[in-house]
Design a protein that fits this description.
Elements (H helix, E strand, L loop, with lengths): L6 H7 L12 H12 L3 H21 L6 E4 L3 E8 L2 E4 L6 E4 L2 E8 L1 H8 L1
Antiparallel strand pairs: 1-2, 2-5, 3-4
Helix pairs in contact: 2-3
């Protein structure tokens, strides 16, 4: 019997080298925080939504290079301009021009890097 495994399942739970990983989604994060604080998931959801909205609004309202949200011990969110570049359509091989864009960037803090690296 052949097992059919959805590719997204493999993406979510295994890296290329076969190590088991788990990607936490928003609802799992909210459940974890609610359990740790012994708080209502509804309240934690409202706080998380407001936090995410505030970070996004802060980055979106100011020009590139002028907006940065720093959370000590966690990291910094900021914007960076990505230059126009050449690309290729993977289906046809046709050359494309990818326009310049302002993109959001996250840089982990030293404390986060140390915690992850043990």
């Amino acid at each position: 019997m052949q097992w059919l495994i959805h590719p997204l399942y493999l993406l979510q739970y295994f890296t290329n080298n076969g190590k088991h990983i788990h990607l936490m989604n928003k609802s799992e994060l909210i459940t974890e925080v609610a359990n740790n604080l012994d708080a209502s998931p509804k309240v934690v959801t409202q706080v998380a939504n407001e936090l995410f909205r505030t970070i996004i609004d802060s980055l979106a309202t100011l020009p590139d290079g002028e907006a940065e949200v720093c959370i000590k011990g966690f990291g910094s969110f900021y914007t960076r301009e990505r230059a126009e570049r050449k690309g290729r359509n993977p289906s046809t091989g046709e050359a494309l021009k990818i326009r310049a864009a302002i993109v959001p960037v996250f840089k982990a803090s030293k404390a986060m890097k140390e915690a992850v690296n043990g």
